[in-house]
Design brief:
Elements: H1 2-6, E1 16-20, E2 23-29, H2 38-49, E3 53-57, H3 60-73, H4 77-85
Parallel strand pairs: 2-3
Antiparallel strand pairs: 1-2
């Protein structure tokens, strides 16, 4: 952690970021009972408020589905399902 802090990483930042078509997406990888921290939730909320997107990833298959949805639809799967509900 001290190396990450020295590089300027802020607490709560996501594990992976993906910039596509002018939009930044953040992904945080979680396994087993691990969950997003308060700082990680705040980071993802700030990203969304600024027009980005982000989510927690629990499997390689989920990650692939999210990237595919971004490439095909310009949004995360949850955002796509929210649009379809409206």
């Amino acid at each position: 952690m001290s190396q990450m802090k020295a590089m300027g990483t802020i607490k709560g930042s996501t594990d992976l970021v993906f910039f596509y078509a002018g939009r930044l997406y953040g992904f945080d990888m979680k396994v087993a009972a691990d969950k997003l921290s308060k700082e990680q939730n705040e980071f993802l909320d700030a990203l969304r408020r600024q027009g980005g997107g982000g989510c927690e990833i629990r499997s390689l298959e989920q990650f692939k589905a999210e990237v595919e949805c971004i490439l095909e639809n310009g949004c995360l799967t949850k955002e796509l399902s929210d649009v379809e509900k409206d």
